[in-house]
Amino acid sequence: MSLPEYKKDFLKAAVAGGALRFGSFELKSKRTSPYFFNAGDFYTGELHVPIMDAYAQTIAASEVADGFDVLFGPAYKGIPLAATVFYALVKANPARYAKAAYSFDRKEAKDHGEGGSIVGSPLKGKRVLIIDDVVSAGTAKRQAIDMIRAAGGTVVGIVVALDRQETLPDGDGKTSAIGQLRKEYQIPIISIVKLEDIINGMKGLISDSDIKSIEEYRAKFGASD
Questions:
Q1: How do 189-194 and 32-37 pair as beta strands?
Q2: Residue 175 three-state SS
Q3: In the 8-state DSSP scheme, what is residue 197?
Q4: From the CB of residue 58, how many other CB atoms can be counted at a distance below 10 Å?
Q5: 221's torsion region: left (phi>0), alpha (psi -120 to 50) or beta?
Q6: C-alpha angle 169-19-142 in degrees, rounded to nearest 5
Q7: CA triplet 102, 78, 130: central angle to 5 degrees?
Q8: What is residue 225's predicted lDDT score, i.e. its pLDDT?
Q9: d(Cα 225, Cα 215) in Å, to the nearest integer?
Q10: Backbone phi, then psi, for 66, in 5-degree steps?
Q11: Are 124 and 151 in contact, with CB atoms under 8 Å apart?
């Protein structure tokens, strides 16, 4: 099945900008992965536009498209994502998202001025969609959920750039970090692309040996949830 154009554009930009690389990379889990993704590398205009548009189109086409009031970016990578993806959403769908809002948190609470740790829209009584780059172990997302709940908001979903579709290092051998969060919080977690999209979208664009290495990695560590 052919990928939607925005996913193709996202993958092409990710490879061109070095945000998606192929080779041999040691992860925090100590696994050796044949690919590596870092959304922090989308810092130029020509690369930033495709990822922002891809996030916006992913959200607009998802089950949470009309079910959130605030787009929330956890510090630090989530901060520019929340601001720029919110802009892309409103620009593409002004009537749909004109009354929506965005916010993010500070790592250190401010004790002067407006004070507190939340910047932007108040969260009390709001339906909140969290935006971030990836889910690794899920620790940062749990912290964000706790923060939003403490501020009176309700988390209705999480959107990330990449779902690695791999099992947790210390898990049951079947469940991914995203799958565990879905089950734990009973919320949708959506992604621009999944590992299977990388495999299908990169065929003919990267070497056959790189594709084979990714397929072997998926066979060894792929999640079934």
A1: unpaired
A2: coil
A3: H
A4: 22
A5: alpha
A6: 45
A7: 60
A8: 79
A9: 18
A10: -115, 20
A11: yes
